[in-house]
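2024-03-11 09:14:02 DEBUG pipeline.ingest accepted 1 chain
2024-03-11 09:14:02 DEBUG pipeline.ingest length=193
2024-03-11 09:14:03 DEBUG pipeline.predict start
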Amino acid sequence: MEDLYRLCYEDIQLKPTAILLGLVLVSLHLAAWFQQDAVRAFLPKFPRHREIGIGLLLAGTAWSYWLVCYMDLGEFYAVEKFVKFALPLSFALLVYHAPEFLAVRATGILLMLLAGPVLQAAFLEAPFTRLLLPIIAYVWIIVGMFWVGMPYLMRDWIDWIIAKDHPKRWSYACGIGAGYGLLMILCAATWQV
């Protein structure tokens, strides 16, 4: 597991990260566009989907626990045992006491955790187009904080995107996401890294 930590947070490379992230963005947005009836029917149910919320929160808790186990905590090393105890406890408390919009909060947590390796991959790299990675990472961080603190925003954004009186919003959202992923892949393919 320590090798996995080193691979994801210390030795992570810019080019493969950008290509992988670009492929994921293109795949997800094209799938959302081609399967739009199914996706548009599922999205309004997602924010209050308890089972998915518990699964995503469990993944976020496990990821956070893994980070605490292997990262250099520096001055915060003294609280490592407390954090290791508090993470599973906070998982149980959130599931029990904050069941509303659990999937949204868990998605926000995962977005903030995912931003770490993406930012690390682009840190102090030469090509200017590397900024495509930090841009999306900071968007994830900001959106993630809002979804954790104000989870009803996801519900409102979903309603806005799938509004029947504005059918082109869905196509625009899918196109922008897929286009950003494609731009990331094309830029990464030209990087001499």
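2024-03-11 09:14:41 DEBUG pipeline.report The chain has nine helices and no strands.
2024-03-11 09:14:41 DEBUG pipeline.predict end
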